[in-house]
Amino acid sequence: MEAKKAVKKAAKKAAEKVAEALGDRVPGSPGSGTPTVDEPTTPVAPLPPKSEQDAPETVTPTGIPTGAPKVSKSQQGEFLTTAQGARLRDTDHSLKAGPRGPVLLQDHHFREKMTHFDHERIPERVVHARGAGAHGTFTAYGSATEVTKAGFLAKGKETEVFVRFSTVLGSRGSADTVRDTRGFATKFYTDEGTFDLVGNNIPVFFIQDAIKFPDIIHAAKWHPDREIPQAQSAHDTFWDFVSLHTEAQHHTMWNMSDRGIPRSYRHMEGFGVHTFRLVNAAGETVLAKFHWKPKLGVHSLDWEEAQIAAGVDPDFHRRDLYDSIEAGAFPEWELGLQVFPDSEEETFAGIDLLDATKIVPEELAPVQPVGKLVLTGVPTNFHAEVEQVAFHLGHLPPGIDVTNDPLLQGRLFSYVDTQLTRLGGPNYSQIPINRPHAPVNDMLRDGFHQHAVHGGVAPYRPNSLDGGNPFTTDTGFLDLPVRVAESAKVRENPVSFDDHYSQVRQFWLSMSPVEKEHIVRAYTFELAKCYEQAIKERQVQCLANIDPVLCEQVATGLGLPVPEPTVPLQDLEPSPVLSQVGGEWPADGRLIGIVVDPAAGLDGVAEVRTAIFNAGMVPLVIAPHGGEVDGVTVQRTFATARSIEFDAILLAGAPAPAPDAIPARDAKAGAEASVTVDPRVLLLVEEAWRHAKAIGAWAGGADVLAAAGIAGTPGVISADSGAAALTELQPLLAQHRVWPRFPATL
Ligand code: HDD
């Protein structure tokens, strides 16, 4: 009893001492500089968890329960805590020996906060570091069941997916619109295990054998001495490699075409590239290539537009993806298959199906649609989902198997291997975004970042201690018993891999004149950025082996002689489907800028905005200042708007130069101009015109067309009202660009 009293007395004395030391700095007391809420001395029940804070494995971002057990939960509730859940009084001041310090080592909250921050970053992907991802659903048409037993391709079956798009060469923070190949990787969380289709927007690859992957990437990425250029192929080492290693010429031609600068991820095709082997329920096999066909068609940026975007909005593609999903213009693709007989030679129409530098033209083997992908959910947390997602070509469900394509075979090693460094160990498939939606019952144990609490004592087979569990099953994944050719071990390619030029020429011959013009300009630009004369000359020799006109044009641009071809030119039948020009596609989610002149009033602007919304597009009002104009909300000002953001421009007025147009360039006055227009509006219109975008005007807007000197040119509309201008504009948008405006001389 006495002892208890003494303890109480000592505790009281200690408390008085603390109070005396703290004085008016008692947290929560007036003037203490710390929050005045009662918490945590008067605890209040934490708020119920917010639904979006549920563990990602239980509910997908589109709100569909995955049925997985609730094993982890992200942060929730009202009160700030330590990582251990202890509530905190203060997170703004270090614990110091008096207000002027020094800081005490014992400040465990400081150390926890800082240590965690210091380790927030993980290594970026060695390739495809820059990317964006989204959630969605794949719905199968059932048309593939004849050739594959994969359950997710059965009629009407819906499967959750996560897609990550990327560039290849740049670092995580690099610009989206650089000239490069784009990654198109899809994770299907199927009931029979995850299927990863890890493709690109280009159907061929630089190399035929994976052992050369480090070489092409070393050549294409920055120079090792100064780590420049960033996210560019326009430099010596890239062109050194592709001109010496001519199997790369086909992929390079695609890169130099408009496919290398997509308008957005929504406007890209995707290709599984390799040939896969499919097996149906009867055990019959076929060879097949996977294709993604965008609902909105394949469209590209203009090269100048891409360059401006890289500075003005480096996140152009990422923003487009997320904005379109949030606007309800859900990106959509059809998955299609090109199917070939599973012959012993593994060729089709003379094309070696194991050569990843070759396509099979769609005119020879049509792409048959087997399902639809719709992206509907943006990530909740970029790091947790987009950064940590890990794809692997070996993630295959029953019904889909690999072939002996030597590029594919090497990839089967690389993707798991790279995650060990990037995601810190072998348990990355337990990270929420990577967790299969099929039940998992493996015998993999322990390792860094092990999250599972495995029961049982016998993670081995056979066992008699865990009731023999788990069992194998005959319905599981079957490695197809494909015959392996009898041969000596060699480091050699088949002879059929030797043709490096015929399909490159076929691509060139399949392009429209304007696309050919763009290809010439791209090669000329990129090679002109090289310093080494020998490299330029060697690549020009490669162009001579593709086409004399292409070679002559580029050589002239570089000031080089035109060489003779060193291989016979082969004229394969052109494949018109490779061209982007000539079709019509939906304009869903396209951005229409509307320039207004507050001084002249906003006649017809509200009406045209509604009409744009109703057409499934997004209107953005551009005015001299922010806020509202005549009750209409302004989304962009003359200071923030740049032409690259808009797919078309409508002009509702001719705003005079505003005071903030400084540093003022002289407002340009066209020959017929009767008014002086704000120079930024003129720049906007001039760029839109140069990039072959549709431009419409009504009321005072027609004066801008006159001031820019573009009235009456193709794709420039002058109408009586905004609604009439929009009606004339829509067919132009369906064709993506006003093609006749590009000077095409080829
Ligand atoms: Fe690869 C990432 C696509 C050949 C090695 N690759 C990666 C990504 C895509 C592709 C889209 C990004 C995945 C993501 O978003 O996380 N890669 C391809 C295509 C190829 C190809 C379509 C040829 C047809 N790749 C290829 C080869 C190798 C690799 C030949 C090596 C043998 N790729 C990798 C990698 C990466 C990768 C190093 C880096 C990050 C990652 O895997 O997860 O393992």
TrEMBL record:
Listed Basic residues bias regions: 1-12
Residue numbers spanned by region Disordered: 1-77
Pfam families on file: Catalase, Catalase-rel, Catalase_C
GO molecular function: catalase activity
Enzyme Commission number(s): 1.11.1.6
Keyword match Metal-binding: yes
CDD domains (alphabetical): GATase1_catalase (cd03132)
All residue ranges annotated as the Catalase core domain in the record: 81-469
Reactions accelerated catalytically: 2 H2O2 = O2 + 2 H2O
InterPro entries xref list: Catalase, Catalase_AS, Catalase_clade2, Catalase_clade2_helical, Catalase_core, Catalase_haem_BS, Catalase_immune_responsive, Catalase_large_C
Keywords, sorted A to Z: Heme, Hydrogen peroxide, Iron, Metal-binding, Oxidoreductase, Peroxidase
SUPFAM superfamilies: Class I glutamine amidotransferase-like (SSF52317), Heme-dependent catalase-like (SSF56634)
Domain of life: Bacteria
Biased amino acid composition, Basic and acidic residues: 13-23
Enzyme class: oxidoreductase
Cofactor: heme
Family to which this protein belongs: Belongs to the catalase family. HPII subfamily.
Function: Decomposes hydrogen peroxide into water and oxygen; serves to protect cells from the toxic effects of hydrogen peroxide.
Protein name: Catalase
